[in-house]
Amino acid sequence: MKMQGMFAAAEEWFAQLQPRERAMLKGGAAIVLIVGLSAALTPGLERSTQLEQRYQVLQADLAWLAQQRPTVSRLGNRCSATAVQSGGGKDVITRIVRRNQIQLTSFQDNPPRAKAEQNQEAFALGLETDDANRLLRMTHQLACQGLIVDVVDISRSEGSENGYVARMEVHYGG
Predict the structure, then answer these.
(1) pTM
(2) Fold for the domain defined by 87-172
């Protein structure tokens, strides 16, 4: 009942308006309706556009990854051809250090900072060389022998342009 009374009052008020006032109200209502619809739909359309752009970026990434598949397969672990050397950890490490022509400046068994558990053999190494690539090659060789490299800190040697000093902490994985 109240609603019908409100509608009747609105119709009576609208009928009493001049024709140009009615036209202005109808135009204003149409503009409010259009603005309201656009305000309601714009965030959804923007989100849709963002998702479409994200989809295209991800598709491009996926295509790039598919192109890189042969390269990644060639980068596989090359340790499988390397036999694990016999002997204790210290012997294996010193052989690898000598093979790479690196100077072993310090060697500590079971250092306090090593991440290894108590029952694992752990070592802290101080190394010097004139070629940083030898240090990286040695790190790879240690990993192929079952040693896990916890810390590698390589820096230029003081007073030498070509020299490098390294600190490593390793332990046997198990």
Answers:
(1) 0.51
(2) Alpha-Beta Plaits (3.30.70)
